[in-house]
C-alpha cells in the first residue's frame, strides 16, 4: 500500500483534537458543538465548533455523549470542518488514525469506518482506545491508565494489550463538575442559566477549580477541611472572575467543592460543607455511602479479594474506587506481581485530569485502602496530559508501528465495515 501521510484525530465529547502525525501537539482543538438557527427561514444550515459558540437564538447539539457518537450527521460535520477548514487537507490523500472509547460498540466502529471510506474516501483508517495511546506516549507498554474527559474510565494495559477484565468507568467528568459548580454559584445568588453563561462556568472551572489535599490545612482528614469550608474558608480561597458583561463573581469554597464529585457523592459534599442540612435519614445515608468504599473496605488487601467483584461490573462510584477495582480485576497469571506493577504505574490523562492537587489527592485516597503493608503507589500526571492520547497517536503513526495493521479501502470493499472489528483489534 502507498505510504500516505497520517492525520491523527482524538475524538472527545467536549473537544476534538486533530493534526499531523509527527507533530508534538495537535494543530486544531475544535469544540464539539453544532448550532442551527431557530428561524425556519434561515438560509444558514449550521455553524460548527468555534463558529457555533456565542451564537444567539440557536438550537445547540453535541455529536457525542460520554465518549460515544450519538449524532452521526453532526459528527460528519465536525470531521468535515477538521479536514477542509481546520487542517486544510484532502482526506483522500491521508490515512486517518482515530481514538475511541473503551466502551465503543462494534456498530459504532463500523459506522465510523463507513463514513471515513464512503464520505471522505480515505485510503486507510485505524481505531484505537485513547488509553493505549496515552501509555505509549510515555514509552510504556504496561500500566494503569485513567482517561478523564466527559466521563472517567480506567483499564490495565499489560505488554501493550488491554486487560478487558480491568475495564471500569465512573460517570463523573467535566460536565458533571461544571454543572455542580454552576449549582454552587447559583446557591450564592448568581444566575447562570443560558448557554453563554454555561461556557463561562466551564472556563471558571478550568481556571480556578482544584482538588483538596491534606496539605491544605493541618487537619486529620479531607472531611474536616470541607466542614471547615462551611464556616469561614471563602476568604482564604477567594478569587474574582469577571464575566463578559463586566459582572464580578466572588468564588471561594466552590473552587474545591466542585471537584469533590470525583471522590464522594454530591449530597455528602453539600452536607459536609453545611450547604444542606444532614438530617441523618436512611435516604441520606444511602446516598452518602455511594462514595464507593467505607472505612472497612479500605482495610482490605487487593490480592486477597481478587474474586469479590464481577468482571462485568463496569461501574464505580468514586475515582479511587474505580482504580482499585480495575487493578483488583487484573487477570494476569502472576496476579500479585502484576497488581503491584499496576499500582506503581498509574497514569492520569485527559482534560478533566488537569485539576491542581488531583495527583496528590489520588495518591492519598488510594493509600487508605490498606491499614498496613500498602504497596508502592505512584500516580503519574504528565504536564501535557490534556493531549497525552493525541501525542501518543502522533508518535505511534510516525514510527510505523501500524505498518501492516491499517484497515484499507481495498479490505473494506472486499469485506465490508464489520472487518474493522478484526483488523483494528491489536490492542484489545
Automatic annotation (TrEMBL):
<protein>
    <submittedName>
        <fullName>Actin-10-related</fullName>
    </submittedName>
</protein>
<dbReference type="InterPro" id="IPR043129">
    <property type="entry name" value="ATPase_NBD"/>
</dbReference>
<comment type="similarity">
    <text>Belongs to the actin family.</text>
</comment>
<dbReference type="InterPro" id="IPR004000">
    <property type="entry name" value="Actin"/>
</dbReference>
<dbReference type="Pfam" id="PF00022">
    <property type="entry name" value="Actin"/>
</dbReference>
Amino acid at each position: 500500500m502507498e505510504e500516505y501521510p497520517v492525520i491523527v484525530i482524538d475524538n472527545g465529547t467536549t473537544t476534538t483534537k486533530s493534526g499531523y502525525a509527527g507533530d508534538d501537539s495537535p494543530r486544531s482543538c475544535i469544540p464539539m458543538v453544532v448550532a442551527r438557527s431557530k428561524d425556519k427561514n434561515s438560509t444558514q444550515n449550521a455553524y460548527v465548533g468555534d463558529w457555533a459558540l456565542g451564537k444567539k437564538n440557536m438550537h445547540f447539539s453535541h455529536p457525542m455523549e460520554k465518549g460515544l457518537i450519538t449524532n452521526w450527521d453532526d459528527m460528519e460535520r465536525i470531521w468535515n470542518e477538521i479536514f477542509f477548514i481546520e487542517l486544510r487537507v484532502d482526506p483522500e490523500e491521508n490515512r486517518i488514525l482515530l481514538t475511541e472509547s473503551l466502551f465503543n460498540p462494534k456498530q459504532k466502529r463500523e459506522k465510523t469506518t463507513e463514513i471515513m471510506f464512503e464520505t471522505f474516501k480515505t485510503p486507510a483508517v485505524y481505531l484505537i482506545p485513547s488509553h493505549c495511546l496515552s501509555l505509549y506516549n510515555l514509552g510504556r507498554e504496561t500500566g494503569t491508565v485513567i482517561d478523564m474527559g466527559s466521563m472517567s474510565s480506567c483499564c490495565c494495559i499489560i505488554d501493550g494489550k488491554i486487560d478487558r477484565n480491568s475495564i471500569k468507568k465512573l460517570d463523573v467528568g467535566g460536565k458533571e463538575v461544571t454543572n455542580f459548580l454552576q449549582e454552587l454559584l447559583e446557591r450564592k445568588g448568581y444566575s447562570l442559566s443560558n448557554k453563554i453563561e454555561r461556557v463561562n462556568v466551564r472556563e471558571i472551572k478550568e481556571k480556578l477549580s482544584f482538588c483538596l489535599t491534606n496539605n491544605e490545612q493541618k487537619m486529620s482528614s479531607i472531611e474536616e477541611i470541607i466542614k471547615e469550608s462551611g464556616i469561614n474558608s471563602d476568604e482564604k480561597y477567594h478569587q474574582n472572575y469577571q464575566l463578559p458583561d463586566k459582572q464580578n463573581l466572588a468564588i471561594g469554597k466552590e473552587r474545591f467543592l466542585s471537584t469533590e464529585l470525583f471522590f464522594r457523592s454530591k449530597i455528602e459534599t453539600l452536607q459536609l460543607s453545611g450547604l444542606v442540612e444532614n438530617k441523618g435519614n436512611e435516604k441520606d445515608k444511602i446516598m452518602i455511602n455511594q462514595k464507593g468504599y467505607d472505612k472497612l473496605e479500605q482495610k482490605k488487601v487487593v490480592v486477597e479479594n481478587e474474586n469479590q467483584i464481577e468482571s462485568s461490573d463496569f461501574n464505580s462510584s468514586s475515582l479511587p474506587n474505580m482504580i482499585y477495582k480495575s487493578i483488583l480485576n487484573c487477570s494476569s497469571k502472576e496476579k500479585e506481581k502484576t497488581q503491584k506493577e499496576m499500582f506503581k504505574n498509574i497514569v492520569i490523562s485527559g482534560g478533566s485530569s488537569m485539576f491542581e492537587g488531583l495527583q496528590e489527592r489520588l495518591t492519598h485516597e488510594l493509600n487508605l485502602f490498606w491499614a498496613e503493608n500498602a504497596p508502592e503507589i505512584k500516580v503519574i500526571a504528565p504536564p501535557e496530559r490534556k493531549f497525552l492520547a493525541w501525542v501518543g497517536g502522533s508518535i505511534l503513526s510516525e514510527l510505523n508501528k501500524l505498518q501492516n495493521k491499517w484497515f484499507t479501502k481495498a479490505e473494506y470493499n472486499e469485506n465490508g465495515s464489520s472487518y474493522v472489528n478484526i483488523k483494528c483489534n491489536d490492542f484489545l
